[in-house]
TrEMBL record:
Designated name of the protein: LysR family transcriptional regulator
Domain HTH lysR-type intervals: 4-61
Keyword Transcription: yes
UniProt keyword annotations, A-Z: DNA-binding, Transcription, Transcription regulation
Length: 317
């Protein structure tokens, strides 16, 4: 049997993440033919097809799923041994993948990209939405960090609070029936727009709190994201209850005004999350620190341990 070539491991890892041989080859700076040859040799070595072509790209076999955790750790250790512990962002050329909500895209991405343009021009960002699969992708290293409200993450993840968030109501500046304050009666009577957000829990906080007050709004419009919500509110007579940070950013772009809610709604924390396996990786640590610096009031908490009974994640000293 032939010896295992270390280059095969890199091809396997990139194909596993990208679900594409051509994209993996581009990432590694090699031809698609060379990547296919390496993958075929790895298939022969393990006696398994490893990947199967589908309409969604090449998907891993159960054998590939089992191998990936081991081979990715081998690759990471070899890369760390080759490069040492130093990471120079000014000279580095690599991509980071961040999963976030559309709120994160609005609040973080412009700041982050402007910072990278000045201090780390060789760094690129791939952004994807938080989904039910994000925890697994963080664990596998397919995603470097997640930014948002993700209370479902427990054992094996570090977290760092970026800022606290509360809710406000936004209305058009020219709304004919809304004054400087918002009463409970007006809030219940007026029509609202709302976001059918998935992947995070801040909408659950809002919906539960309003239901507890007997104040579920009269929703006239559901939209799939926050990206056009402020524009819609600014050009109609709809109201929307949104996170304050989003409202403050959009107030300078759209003809909207911010109004205090007539109901008490709990605050929540927006955090960045990463898996314990990558806690000491120099490049990932640098990225997390940059994000924390761009968002004030960052406080780190250690990873939760597997729990047999409910408990809380404590803060790091």
């Amino acid at each position: 049997m032939a010896s295992l070539d270390l280059d095969w491991i890199a091809v396997f890892d990139e194909v596993y993440k990208a679900r594409s041989v051509s994209r993996a080859a581009d990432k590694l700076g090699m031809t698609q033919g060379a990547a296919s040859t390496a993958l075929n040799r790895l298939r022969a070595y393990y006696g398994d097809p490893l990947f199967t072509r589908t309409a969604r790209g090449v998907l891993p076999t159960p054998r590939a799923d089992a191998l990936h955790k081991v081979l990715r750790e081998v690759r990471a250790m070899l890369e760390q041994a080759r490069t040492g512990s130093a990471f120079d962002p000014a000279k580095a050329k690599r991509s980071f993948r961040i999963c976030m909500t559309d709120l994160g895209e609005i609040a973080l991405l412009p700041r982050l990209l402007n910072y990278l343009q000045r201090h780390a021009p060789g760094i690129d960002i791939d952004a994807e939405r938080i989904t039910a699969d994000s925890a697994r992708r963080l664990e596998e290293g397919a995603v470097d960090v997640a930014v948002g409200y993700m209370p479902q993450l427990e054992a094996g993840f570090y977290q760092r609070t970026l800022f606290e968030q509360d809710f406000v109501c936004i209305a058009s500046r020219s709304h004919p029936r809304i004054g400087k304050t918002l009463s409970k009666a007006v809030y219940r009577r007026e029509r609202h727009a709302t976001v059918a957000a998935t992947g995070t829990g801040h909408t659950v906080i809002l919906d539960k709190a309003l239901a507890g007050h007997g104040a579920s709004p009269r929703v006239a419009l559901h939209v799939p994201s926050f990206l056009a919500l402020a524009q819609i509110v600014g050009e109609t007579e709809l109201l929307a209850t949104v996170p304050r940070h989003y409202a403050a950013v959009m107030q300078s772009r759209e003809p909207i005004r911010l109004l205090a809610l007539p109901y008490e709604i709990p605050r929540y924390q927006v955090k960045q999350h990463w898996h314990v396996r990558y806690h000491r990786d120099p490049a990932n640590a640098w990225l997390r620190q940059v994000i924390a610096d761009l968002m004030p009031s960052a406080v780190m908490s250690p990873p939760a341990m597997p729990r047999r009974s409910p408990g809380k994640i404590g803060k790091a000293a």
